[in-house]
Automatic annotation (TrEMBL):
The keyword Coiled coil applies. Residues 1-165 form the Integrase catalytic domain. The keyword Manganese does not apply. Keywords: Coiled coil. Residues 187-218 form a coiled coil. InterPro entries: Gypsy_RT_Integrase-like, Integrase_cat-core, RNaseH-like_sf, RNaseH_sf. One of its GO terms (biological process) is DNA integration. It comes from Deinandra increscens subsp. villosa. GO terms for molecular function: nucleic acid binding. Pfam families: rve. This is Integrase catalytic domain-containing protein.
Length: 318
């Protein structure tokens, strides 16, 4: 399916939220709950002992609503910790649109997935070998992320949110501390400087919007250029990829199930398929499908990139 970037208008309008983990036990904490603003790339995250809906509700109220205002949209996966009555009731109370990422096709929540990966990379470089101190290093990782240059917005999340650069320890140790002391001695000069920064903030955010839009268009071209068109016809037999199928280690079993039959071709690369055993139907993305070839029809064909060859009475084994 071609990449469809999410159009975001205002800062803090759209947040993506997701759980990371479980990780090695760190002072009783096993998970990290992460939320990222789709415009500024600002991250809020906490270490948690569980990954249930009560943790999510408390987090969005304390770390998002009370600090950044009520967003218009929150994007998450379809996990029970996000898709439940209590969380839905909370979002409905404040008029927030809850959007669920398509199962097995999580590009909808791509921004939070990218942020998760970056936070993990930072933690990997700072924790001990046993990795059991990650909960105490989380705030340092967040600080590093917030003050790092982000290509999509052309600046740092910290500067885009606060309109000024963040004073880092290395700067304070050398020159910035003296500059701060001098400015603080002259309140009028400090006031004029801050007004100038706030005046530049709107221009900075406009530039960030343009930079993000150009970056998304560039990524869309790269993504779409690698797409392989899925041509399936009504009545054709296919295999269905089930990425959530739990397999035992070393078990020689495929995550491709079927066969299914194509019953209709929808838009945006979606197909309706029917189970040939119980005749249940479902709509899936074409990237989860591969043609099914009956050995009764084709003899001696070698399994190639896009095909699985198996006897009509057997399931595919890989």
């Amino acid at each position: 399916m071609p990449l469809q970037p999410i159009l975001v208008v205002e800062i803090f309008d759209v947040w993506g939220i997701d759980f990371m983990g479980p990780f090695p036990n760190s002072n009783g904490f096993l998970y990290i709950l992460v939320a990222v603003d789709y415009v500024s790339k600002w991250i809020e995250a906490i270490a948690t002992k569980t990954n249930d809906h009560s943790v999510v509700c408390k987090f969005v109220q304390q770390n998002i609503f009370s600090r950044f205002g009520i967003p218009r949209v929150i994007i998450s996966d379809g996990g029970s910790h996000f898709k439940n009555f209590r969380f839905g009731k909370l979002l409905k109370k404040y008029g927030i649109d809850h959007r669920i990422a398509t199962p097995y096709h999580p590009q909808t929540s791509g921004q939070v997935e990218v942020s998760n990966r970056q936070i993990k990379e930072i933690l990997q470089k700072t924790v001990r070998i046993d990795r059991k101190d990650w909960s105490s290093k989380l705030n340092d990782a967040l600080w590093a992320y917030r003050t790092a240059f982000e290509t999509p917005i052309g600046t740092t999340p910290y500067r885009l949110v606060y309109g000024k650069g963040c004073h880092l320890p290395v700067e304070l140790a050398h020159r910035a501390l003296w500059a701060v002391k001098e400015v603080n001695l002259d309140y009028d000069a400090a006031g004029r400087e801050r007004k100038l920064q706030l005046g530049e903030l709107e221009e900075l955010r406009d530039e960030a919007y343009e930079s993000a839009d150009a970056y998304k268009n560039k990524m869309k071209k790269v993504h779409d250029a690698r797409l392989k068109k899925m041509d399936f016809q009504v009545g054709q037999k296919v295999w269905l990829f089930n990425s959530r199928l739990k397999l035992f280690p070393g078990k020689l079993k495929s995550k491709w199930t079927g066969p299914f039959r194509i019953t209709s071709v929808g838009g945006y690369g979606n197909f309706e398929i029917e189970d040939m055993d119980d005749h249940l139907r479902q709509v899936v993305n074409g990237h989860r499908l591969k043609p099914y070839l009956d050995s009764a029809d084709i003899h001696g064909r070698i399994d190639k990139d896009d095909y699985f060859l198996a006897p009509a009475s057997e399931s595919p084994e890989t």
